[in-house]
Amino acid sequence: MEFWFSEFHTGNVKLSVRVNKQLFAGESEYQRIDVFESPEFGKFVALDGEIVFSDADEFVYDEMVTHVPMAVHPHVKNVLIIGGGDGGVAKELIRYPDIETIDVVEVDKMFVDVCRDIFPEVAAGMNDPRVNIHYEDGLRFLRNKRSQYDLIINDSTDPFGHTEGLFTKEFYGSCYKALREDGIMVYQHGSPFYDEDEQACRDMHRKVYRSFPISRVYQAHIPTCPSGYWLFGFASKKYHPLTDLDPERWNKRHLKTWYYTTNLHTGAFMLPKYVEDLLEEEERKHE
């Protein structure tokens, strides 16, 4: 008998993955957590029925939310990760010896424990002494923070359910206040390909564009994401992701990567015409 995990990307489209077995099933206070083992993607996690990462493609997401801002900002010392309970983003950040502190704010302790147990190679980042885990709501954590971080990475899942507050105008305003005068915020921007996802992308870009003087969007190919196409947002008080990119400085670090390069960094900000159009339409609403 064959076993398949299916995730609906729209009412008319679903991604189905053959699975060998289920490694974990549980219901936390915040979400349903399932872990499967598959021949194609290795182990993968689904939260409330949606794949959030797999052995096969987590490197794409984790590298693109960390190395893009780190290749731009010249002196990151203090980092905040909102979400990130799997440890993947922290895993990439601890490779930078000049980073002094990494605060991980994850509301769901069960998710962290499951990832530590089943994905130790990903969760290894959480064991670094510079990493501090805070089990609380990200928006609440941010409200009293002022000029404390050089980099904020919003690694929360999506703008619905218990993470909905992390995609509001208040949240982006709180991020702005929590960043130092040259701080950068990076966040996942979703996929604009399917009609039912487009509005969320539009809303997010409009809110960030109104909150930060510099706001750009970049892209990556992630097979388990809806349509295999994913966007990220780059927002900053000072640094532009292209004109302030320092390839020579970053390449001197000699970090081994599987996806990110400084050449790809530049290309990732060159977006398809339909994406450019929808972003520009939202920007014009601000004028």
Structure description:
This protein has 287 residues and is an alpha/beta fold. 31% of the residues lie in helices and 30% in strands. It contains ten helices and 13 strands. Strand 3 and strand 4 form a beta hairpin. 43% of the residues are buried.
List key phrases describing it:
seven-stranded mixed sheet, globular, 287 residues, 31% helix
Summarize the structure.
This protein is of the alpha/beta class and 287 residues long.
What is the strand and helix layout of this fold?
Elements lengths: L3 E5 L5 E5 L2 E7 L4 E7 L3 E6 L2 E5 L3 H13 L7 E6 L4 H6 L7 E5 L3 H10 L1 H4 L7 E4 L3 H5 L6 E7 L13 H10 E12 L4 H17 L2 E8 L7 E8 L10 H5 L10 H7 L4 H12 L3
Parallel strand pairs: 7-8, 7-10, 8-9, 10-11
Antiparallel strand pairs: 1-2, 3-4, 4-5, 5-6, 11-13, 12-13
Helix pairs in contact: 7-10
Q: Give the averaged pLDDT, no decimals.
A: 93
Globular, elongated, flat, extended or rod-shaped: what is the shape? Answer: globular
The tally of beta strands, per DSSP, is 13
How are strands sequenced across the largest beta sheet?
9-8-7-10-11-13-12
Straight-line distance between termini: 58 Å
Structural class: alpha/beta
SSE arrangement, N to C = EEEEEEHEHEHHEHEHEHEEHHH
Largest sheet report: 7 strands, mixed
